[in-house]
Design goal:
Hypothetical Protein Aq_1857, Chain: A; 9 strands; globular
C-alpha cells in the first residue's frame, strides 16, 4: 500500500490563512465551482511554479479516478484539493490572500504562496521554486 509522507507527519500538508479561506469562500458563493486545485507545474525561473485554480465536478471526479487519491482539505464549505503528483513539492506551503493596499505598496489583491524555507528554495519573484536536497 502506498503511504503518503503527510500521513506520517500527522498534520495538514499545507496551511491556509483565514484571509485565504474567507476569499475562497467568497468565490465559492459566487460561482458554480466549489473545488480549488493546488498543484506545482514545470516552469518559472526556478524549476517549478505554483498553480491554483477552480475546478468543476467533472475535473474533480477525474482526479478521484486516478491510482493515487488526492488530499482534500475542507474549510468553510470550500474544498482545496492537492494534486497527488505535486504533493511532495507543496508540503509546508502556506496559501494566503492579500488585499490591495496602496499605502503599503500592495497594488493588487491576490493569492500568494509562502513555502517552507526548510524544504524549498525560491527566487525573488516568489512564484517559482525548487525543492532542496534533503
Amino acid at each position: 500500500m502506498f503511504k503518503r509522507f503527510y500521513t506520517i507527519l500527522k498534520q495538514s500538508p499545507i496551511h491556509i490563512t483565514q484571509s485565504a479561506i474567507n476569499k475562497m469562500n467568497n468565490i465559492y458563493n459566487n460561482t458554480n465551482n466549489k473545488y480549488f486545485l493546488f498543484s506545482a507545474k514545470n516552469g518559472g525561473c526556478n524549476g517549478f511554479s505554483y498553480d491554483f485554480k477552480l475546478i468543476n465536478n467533472t475535473e474533480y471526479n477525474e482526479l478521484y479516478e486516478n491510482k493515487y487519491k488526492p488530499i482534500c482539505i475542507t474549510k468553510k464549505n470550500v474544498e482545496i484539493i492537492i494534486e497527488p503528483i505535486s504533493e511532495m513539492f507543496l508540503l509546508g506551503t502556506t496559501i494566503d490572500y492579500i488585499e490591495q493596499d496602496y499605502e503599503n505598496n500592495v497594488f493588487e489583491s491576490k493569492f500568494i504562496f509562502k513555502p517552507d524555507k526548510n524544504l524549498i528554495n525560491t527566487c525573488g519573484c516568489g512564484i517559482s521554486f525548487t525543492p532542496k536536497n534533503l
